[in-house]
């Protein structure tokens, strides 16, 4: 292995602790379920949630392994259609955030249940305009609500976690209306699954999926 590559791996490894949630002691144990949530639906169906929290590769990878999630798509939210392209979004000047659209069955998992995973293992909600090694407004933490019920649940949950001082710093996650979601380019879809040995995935995203498996075994699926 070339020394430069070894150095890069060491840097990535050192950043691993930054990308994981820094809640009290055990993150999942410290992040309680939301006290306000939608009831579990009586019959199967489809609903949609959109969140952002760093590079969309890792967020997509986590939710693809959550029981009750039908699909998770990487994309862009917060800007216009004409700038919803990776190279432009990467400038940090488009208003977009790298986001993930989650289509889920509300009879299997609630909206609040998805948000608990989002705060517990998918990212560190206390980081402002960055996530681990990635920096810029396109990596901000946001919950994009599509109706008033989602807004109510998300805002109440952020307040609940902040008031309980679950994290050592205030939550930076913004709860904002969803204007539109634009799917990312094909090469970004399923990136973690298709490139499991890439150093970025190994050190930043694979651990998130492992944390999901360990901390939420009843919700983890190996699909």
Reported CATH architecture: 2-Layer Sandwich
Taking the sheet with the most strands, its summary is:
6 strands, mixed
What is the typical, i.e. mean, pLDDT? 90
Q: What is the CATH level 1 assignment?
A: Alpha Beta
Order of helices and strands: HHEHEHEHEEEHEEHH
CATH superfamily: Peptide methionine sulphoxide reductase MsrA
Alpha plus pi helix count:
8
- What order do the strands of the largest sheet run in, or round the barrel if closed? 7-6-1-3-2-8
- DSSP, total strands: 8
Low-confidence stretches: 1-28
Which shape, going by the Cα principal axes? Answer: globular
Distance between the termini: 33 Å
Structure, described:
By secondary structure, this protein is of the alpha+beta class. It has helices at 3-19, 27-30, 56-63, 86-89, 111-122, 148-163, 191-194, 199-215; strands at 47-53, 69-77, 97-104, 130-131, 134-135, 141-145, 174-177, 181-183. It has one domain (3-215): Peptide methionine sulphoxide reductase MsrA (Peptide Methionine Sulfoxide Reductase, Chain A). The protein is built from eight helices and eight strands. A six-stranded mixed β-sheet has the order 7-6-1-3-2-8, covered by helices on one side. β6 (141-145), α6 and β7 (174-177) form a beta-alpha-beta unit. α1 (3-19) packs parallel to α8 (199-215), α3 (56-63) crosses α5 (111-122) and α5 (111-122) packs across α8. It is globular, with a radius of gyration of 17 Å.
